[in-house]
Amino acid sequence: MRKVKIALLHLLPIAGDISYNQKLIEKAVRCAAVKEVDWIITPELAVSGLQFSRKIGTHWINQQPDEWMTRFMDLVKSLQVNVFLGCPEKSKEDKYYNSVFIIGKNGQLLGTQRKISSVTDDWSTSGEFVEPINVDGIKVGLSICADSYTPAIANTLLEKGSEILIAPSAWGPGLHGPDGEWEQRSIDTGLPLFVCNRTGEDETVLFWEAKSLVIKNGEHLLSHSSKQSAVLTFEWNLDERDVISDQFDVEYLK
């Protein structure tokens, strides 16, 4: 049986407090690595928080890997895990992107996905393409938060050979909250979809009831929401395309 052990970092980042968020990510990654996971996934913009630009602007955003990410990549290598990291980046053309970086067990960058839908991100530029990224021989498609709102991106990832969809997100319930989009994308594509969401609150968005999910054929196989940061661990059967775990193994971060 081919399987993969995954940790979703259901974190409580603070918008604009970069140092705090970086330390929280490092702590959560170390915690997950102890559980001998293969993949560790953070929420969207885990490094910055969602609405950081209203507090600290964008001048601090660097081309990646910057000094901190270089150290973080060394940490990932020392722990021998793959990490999906939500972090803003600046391009050589001085454009800003809402990105997810996939760092391999060797500490090298396996790939980057830039968020396509930037309607609510007044600081960011839309990414130009989506492409599956090979992680441990598995083609993984990334659909960052609102990129799951319509079928186009998920369908493109399916057409390009994705075997699993991962949705790093900062999408809280409410008037503009998720309303069946993730479930429908799993139905549209026939692919499992893993949502790594967050908790806490930013200036105008509440995440306290936001859910991290494992979805198959529109059904929630695993679900979690909490008031504090948590590491959610589960095992996935790659051959059967189903969960091995009947619930998340949850460890709260203090």
Q: Helices and strands in order, then pairings?
A:
Blueprint: E1 3-10, H1 18-34, E2 39-41, H2 53-56, H3 67-79, E3 82-90, E4 96-103, E5 109-114, E6 133-135, E7 138-142, H4 152-159, E8 164-168, H5 181-189, E9 193-196, E10 212-216, E11 219-224, E12 230-237, E13 242-243, E14 249-252
Helix pairs in contact: 1-3
Summarize the structure.
Keywords: Hydrolase. This is Carbon-nitrogen hydrolase family protein. The chain has one domain (3-252): Carbon-nitrogen hydrolase (Nitrilase/N-carbamoyl-D-aminoacid amidohydrolase), CATH 3.60.110.
Please give the largest β-sheet.
8 strands, mixed
N- to C-terminal separation? Answer: 35 Å
CATH class: Alpha Beta
Write the H/E string, N to C.
EHEHHEEEEEHEHEEEEEE
- The helix content is 10-25%
Number of domains: 1
Pick out the low-confidence regions. none
Rg computed from alpha carbons, rounded to a whole number of angstroms:
16 Å
Portion in strands: 25-35%
Average pLDDT over all residues: 96
The dominant shape is globular
What's the tally of helices?
A: 5
- Give me the count of strands: 14
Instruction: Name the CATH architecture.
Output: 4-Layer Sandwich
Main structural class: alpha/beta
CATH superfamily: Carbon-nitrogen hydrolase
Q: What would the CATH topology be?
A: Nitrilase/N-carbamoyl-D-aminoacid amidohydrolase
Protein name: Carbon-nitrogen hydrolase family protein
Organism: Alkalihalophilus lindianensis
Pfam family, one: CN_hydrolase
Keywords: Hydrolase
